[in-house]
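Worked Example 4.2. Consider the chain below.
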Amino acid sequence: MSITKHKGILELTRTLLLQQTMTSLLETLTQVVQSAGIADAVTLVLFDNNNSRVSFYGIDPHHQPVNYEDETLLATGPVRSLQNNPKMQVWRREALYLRYPQLAALNLYPSFTGYCLVPLLASSGLLGGCEFTRQQEHAFSDEDKAGLHELCILAAIAVEQIQLREKALFQQAQLRHERDDFRILVDITNAVLSKLDLDELTGEIAKTIHHFFHLNAISIVLCDADKESEQASVYATHYVQQHVAEREQSRMILAGTLEQQVMNSGEMLLTNVRPAHDEESEESTLFQLLWRDQTKTQCILPLRFGHKTLGVLKLAQCQPDNFNTANLLVLQQIAERIAIAVDNALAYQEIKSLKEKLQHENLYLTEQINNDNPDFSDIVGRSNSMSAVLKQVEIVAKSDCSVLILGETGTGKELVARAIHNLGDRRDQRMVKMNCAAMPAGLMESDLFGHEKGSFTGATAQRMGRFELADKGTLFLDEVGEIPLELQPKLLRILQEREFERVGGNKLISVNVRMIAATNRDLQQMVADKEFRSDLFYRLNVFPIIIPPLRERPEDIPQLVKFLTYKIAKRMKRTIDSIPASTLRHLSQMPWPGNVRELENVIERAVLLTRGTVLDLQLPELNYSLSITAPVVPAAVSSEAEKPLMSEGDEREHIIAVLKETNGVVAGPRGAAQRLGLKRTTLLSRMKKLGITTH
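Applying the procedure from the previous section yields the following structure tokens:
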């Protein structure tokens, strides 16, 4: 019997197209075929876009909708055949189960005699099929098949329309979620990036996250700046009542915690925390008190910025299922923005700390300025000899002529050089320093003049030398007497012509450099011994400044002791507000062969050993230390170069005793050479002569 005889085609089309869900469409189709007496039950079988899964829509015997997805039935059965060949299939029950025995086991179609599968073809292609089953004994007639074919043409249009509507609704919902998520991200970004104070930032983060997600607890756990530290700072905010925050700061040990696990893995962690009934718990004290008897869902997200792991964002909620796939994705994006804000706050904190430190140091240096010599804040001394030196510095500073600073080791030659630079017209440019004694002879040329790429083994890139770095500024060559003889002509050329070539290069480079050199050696004697070029010596010795040793200006020692005590005590975080007059008097009577550097070492040891606020010099130990270090006048200021002060036997015992005190260390600020007031090379030469080894 034709369907169109029972229902007009236009009315049927209108009825089907009014259906907005697959269930309502299925119910309408069932009513149509049942009223026409063609079939008793209808099932929709729809393919997904990839034809890998099948969605089944049916009605159970209790007239309840049934909807499920399956992919196993595509392997065999009429549905798979329909996918390969979209034509109508008609089966009797016995034939269907004989051909597809697995369907009999599944019992998908109970109590039927006939089965018909009609393809649903639309403009977009094959959507799936519509299954019709009947309980009558007679088979589907040609007229029944024609009616079902006509019905499925209309049903395909209705299915396609419902799918398009569902897709549009899904996209709308997705866009709404994305819009809401974007609004949350913008609001949180605007809220946190404007905060530079760490305490304000963590409070604003908690406030904003709670506003959007209504969480019970929000914590920021930040690693210590010291990478070796296993502790972290915790900034926690708890919301006992709506919008009523209780905040706390604490410290925690990271070892073995979930926070450390997240920091190391860089992956989010979602876990449940059961009620804690013991006194010891990983949670903060306030968190225990507020939600001790409740199971909490906890989400821990890493705070990473660039290649740095700053800490974690820790969220907790007592309500179950508060975290889902959608808001976890948003929270991960929020954590990324919080990491940027935290990094900014930490950088600001460091800058603020350095600024405060600089202000304190400037205040300290200002307090140390000599009232008689306001332009020499780093140089301490009011004696006539030091005043004469400072007058010479003032005279030569305004010129560009070369300066040669002579003096024993430890007298402060570098301080004088820096004073010349700071008082001159080049004060706004850099002062580049090089210690010639500390630089290997083979690398000195490259370090001074630079080199071209490939000029020697290891020269993988072009490098600027110190002369280029000091262009328009000052170059200070300390221990200039150690410059190798073969390198001195090139140094002489740049002093005369103000141009040079890099190692391995052929291009002339012009520079404008003010040269200041210093040495504790007798350069005139070195010239006489052919160890130093005379023309270079005269180029350097345009304006010599001789710094007197400390033993020649004992009146400066009390002021130096006070200055050094304050500086060293501040560095060691000690408080020393008094120095006995007897101590100052005793120190002023000492010979100080190591000059100011030796005095500083003695003061440092005294500050370290002092237990109160009065400097404890421990005079017996000092007398013994100084008694084995007789003053030695360096060759730079004495015509009798390196003249022995005792017999060879006594000298040998003297050197051995000092070596024992320094544990065999020859060079360095605490080495035997420093204590004896000798150059390292001079001491090694005497040790070789006297048969002394450090082994």
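The first helix runs from residue 3 to 6. Confidence is low (pLDDT under 50) at residues 277-284, 363-375, 627-645. Compare this with Example 4.1 before moving on.
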